[in-house]
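ping. complex inputs:
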Amino acid sequence: MLRNTADSWGAPAKLFHWVMAALILAQIALGVMAASWRVSPAKLELFFWHKSNGMLILALVALRLLWRLANPPPELPSGMAAWERAAARLSHLLLYALMIAMPVTGWIVSSASNVPFRIFWLIPLPAIVAPDEPTADLVALVHGGLAVLLALVLSAHIGAALRHHFVKRDAVLERMLPGIRRAP
Amino acid sequence: MKGIVSVLGLCGVLAFAPCPAQGADWKMDPAGSKLEFVATFEKAAAPGEFKEFDARLRFDPDKPAGSRLEVTVKVTSADMNVADVNKEIRGKDWFDYAAFPQAEFRSTELRRIEGNRYVARGILLLKGVKQPVEVPFSWTASADGAVMEGELTVKRGAFGIGTGEWAATNVIGADVKVKFKVKLRKAG
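pong. complex structure:
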């Protein structure tokens, strides 16, 4: 089943979710390590993978958004409080916004700092802003701040999924797992 | 053309044929001259430039045998377009500005390859290391002087540019392309 239904996610939506979950967790680890490593070939290597992975995530989130717009998500379980629905909507909105804002601010830092870069050694990354050190420093701060926000929203997202499964005992987590299909 | 060259070859033998000696002296016009280099970072070109350098040349395009090319480069004028990189390359692992602020090339032999293309063989002194290099260039005469242009590839490791952990070439490549365009005017 490819398309989402009223109570289940289709395979493409699940694939997007879990592939991007893995890439984003790796991305946060790479970013933290790249930023904190002493200047060395290893630091440059970490930045290379962080930037390449970031551009991959940006491309995937664009496809994922298109897929989501064409495939409305399944409904939230009945019986959720108004604040829970609002929190779910807000956190999903924030996750999408951050999946775009993180790579875009990273791209701006890369362009402003004027460091030459080929995505996965292949595609030269075009500059989206002119080289300017103050811009690079400022947007790097924004990028770091948004990363903290992303970590908070991700924690809430994971916490809520576990709460749905273990406390509320509904199907919200289960229906996103691969291979599990709810009876109609 | 061949006729002229062979006539010039007879100079000194025939009393009436004056020798062109070692050719004319040329000096560089810094405004029209550029010395660039391109390193690589994860297979992406990382360009830079030495903003201050000087070339002195004694050269006769038709009789390059007695010619001499001398270039001095103010290594500390290097600019790689990235603030953090410019800070790093000053250090001991890279150019070591404090100990080796200047690089030099002195030709030992200059000859024509064909047409307007020549090659200067000589010694490059960079970061205290002397290595033989070949500098190929083209020579284009103009009304107010001449332009010599060319490029060569040097191995950064041969000169100790990038030592210690930076000697590995998987992140910062081994080859550095050097490109030059030198505008010259006849001296005096």
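The first strand of chain B starts at residue 24 and ends at 28.
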